[in-house]
Structure formats: C-alpha cells, structure tokens
Write a structure and sequence with these properties.
Length: about 375
C-alpha cells in the first residue's frame, strides 16, 4: 500500500507542471471573466400562496378534496411552471422591448419555495431593467396562470351551455306537447279536474239523497192521509184527506222529477270522469317528460352559474399575493468570484491529477510496446 502511494506521488511530482498549468489557466480565466464582466444586479419578488379552491365543476360526484398544504404546494408548482414558461418570457420581452431571447431572460430567473412563500429572483446588468423585468414577468405569469386555471371551468362552462341549448329545445318540445294536450281536451290540470268532478259527484249524490228522504217522507204522509180518509165516517172529512194526499203526491212527483235531473247530471259527470281517467296515462307521460327535462335544465342552469363563478375566481388569482414587490437595487449583487475560484481551483487540480495519471499510463503502454517489438 505504501509502495502504491509513493508511486502515485512520483507520478504527480513528475507532471506537476501540467497540474500547475491547468490550475493557472483555470483561475486566470475565472479572474479575467470576473474583471471584465459587468456588475450583476438582483431584483426580488416575494409571493404568499394560500389554499385555492379547486376549479373543476363537478357534474356527477364530488371529487376528494386535497389537504391545505398539498393545495399550496400544487399552486406553487403550477405558478413556478408559469414563471418558467417560454410563452410568458416572450410576453415580457415584448412588453419591455428587450430584444433578447426567451432562454436568455429565463437564465436569470430563480424561483424558490419557502413554506407558503415563493421567492422569485431576476438578475441583469441594469438595475432599472432588472426591476422592470421582475415586476412585468410576475404580472404576465399571473395572467398566464389565471388563464390556465380558468381553462377547466371555461371548458365545463362551454359544455354546459351547449347542453343547456339542447335541453331548452327539449323543454320547449315537451311543454308544447303538454299544452296541445290541454287545449285539445280543455283541461289545465287533469288531477284538479278529476278531483273537481269527484267533488261535484259527491255533492250531486248528497243532494239526491236528500230528495229521496223528502220523497219518502211525502209518500209516507200521503199514505197516512189515505188511511185517515178510509177510516173516517164523514164524507166531507174523507174528501179533505184525499185532497191533502193528492197534494203530497204532487210533491212526490216534483221530487221524482228533480231526482231524474240529478240522475242525469250524475250520469253526465260520471261519463266525464271516465273520459278524464282514460286520459290519465297520456297526461302523466307528458307531465313526466316536462318534469324530467325541466329538472335537467334547472340542474344545468345551476352548474352554469357555478362554472361562471369559478371562471371569474380563477382569473382573479387572489390566492397568490405579492407581499414584497420588486425594488430597484442600489448596489450590485455580491460577487461570486471567490466561490468560483475555490471551485475552479479544486476542479483544475483534480482534473490535472487525473490527466497526469492518464498520460503516465499511455507513456508506460508505449514503452511496453517498444520493448516487445525490440
């Protein structure tokens, strides 16, 4: 083990100049770039994210809600994607007339999550420009994210409105068929008509029952007068009793005429009732068709209102708030030259050592090949 270590050290000592050369070149390039590079300015925007309402419009079953923290993380991920969108970058470039590529703009963007907060940072070589870029890019990301979030509700709203058009036509057709039925049979509400006729029949039968009672009473009185006329021994009294019996018979005849009229009315109402009862099946079918379509129409109307509210809510994006707006930096961002030098020095030394071993291996391989050929 010690022999191998000594061998490795000999290789490094043999090619120390190569390691030193790579080290000098690397650090010189870093120092030159740092000295010639323009000062970099940083603008910072801090956002707070709260739990957002889901944008799906549930037509059939309620979706399982996410937890508050999961919702916040989901919003942060989605808004991060909006910030890094090339479309949003081009919009910012167009608004500020920057004259650069979207990739160049996004290369200066850094987004980091800190609990419920999002930290958005832009770097540029112009302090006024970096503030404008940060402000405008976040605004454009808001608009883009709102449009994306509103898309599910907007699609649902479009579908619901199309279905409402279909249901409106179906409701008009069903209502027209029911109205034609009512006009044809001269009824407004068949159950009310049937109930009214049943009430009339009960009233007619009750009145006829009263007439029957009056008629039987008059018949009994007439029979009593005739018995008195037969039992009396006086001719004059018998004539009076017979006259009274005849008057009761006239009352009975009048009552029978009234009974016949009531029987006629009852028969007419019973016939009308049978006709209406025969229409019940057709009426119920038409009424159920109207009720079913009306129920669908009312359901879709409520969902249309819900979808419209969700579209408005999504475009508002009030669940993401700017709590620290971008400000123009008053000094350049801290230089990273020292960190770059440290990393560059370590990488260059490691790379030089690896290259030294590779060159030593190739040198030994050539020497071995020459000895074998000799």
């Amino acid at each position: 083990m010690a022999a191998e270590s000594v061998s490795y050290l000999r290789i490094i000592a043999k090619r120390w100049w190569l390691i030193a050369l790579i080290f000098v070149v690397t650090t010189s390039v870093i120092l030159f770039n740092s000295m010639t590079a323009k000062p970099v300015y940083r603008a910072f925007v801090r956002l707070q994210v709260i739990a957002a309402e889901p944008q799906e419009v549930s037509l059939f079953a309620q979706t399982r809600p996410m937890g508050t923290q999961e919702e916040i993380v989901a919003v942060q991920v989605q808004f991060d994607a909006a910030l890094r969108s090339a479309y949003v970058a081009w919009q910012t470039i167009h608004d500020l007339n920057l004259g650069i590529e979207a990739a160049d703009l996004l290369s200066g963007l850094t987004v980091g999550a800190d609990g419920e907060f999002l930290n958005v940072t832009f770097v540029a070589d112009n302090p006024m420009l970096v503030e404008a870029i940060a402000t405008k890019h976040v605004e454009n990301a808001f608009d883009y994210y709102a449009e994306i979030r509103a898309k599910p509700s907007a699609v649902a709203l479009q579908f619901i409105q199309q279905q409402l058009t279909v249901e409106e036509k179906a409701l008009a057709t069903a209502s027209s068929a029911l109205l034609e039925f009512k006009i044809t049979h001269n009824v407004d509400s068949l159950p009310r008509e049937i109930s009214a006729i049943q009430d009339q029949l009960r009233g007619l039968r009750l009145e006829r029952g009263k007439l029957v009672a009056e008629r039987e009473k008059a018949q009994a009185i007439s029979a009593l007068y005739l018995e008195e006329a037969a039992a009396t021994g006086s001719t004059e009294a018998a004539v009076n009793y017979q006259r009274l019996a005849a008057s009761q018979d006239a009352v009975v005849a009048g009552i029978r005429a009234q009974e016949a009229e009531y029987d006629k009315l009852v028969a007419q109402q019973e016939g009308t009732l049978v006709e209406l009862l025969n229409l019940t099946t057709e009426y119920d079918v038409l009424l159920r068709a109207v009720s079913r379509v009306q129920s669908n129409y009312n359901f879709l109307t409520s969902k249309e209102s819900e979808a419209g509210l969700k579209v408005n809510q999504a475009t508002n994006v009030s669940f993401i708030q700017i709590i620290e707006p971008a400000r123009m930096p008053d000094r350049p961002a801290p230089s990273r030259t020292s960190k770059l030098l440290i990393v560059g020095a370590l990488v260059s030394i490691l790379g030089g050592i690896i290259l030294a071993f590779i060159l030593e291996f190739l040198s030994n391989l050539r020497a071995h090949s020459r000895r074998e050929s000799a």
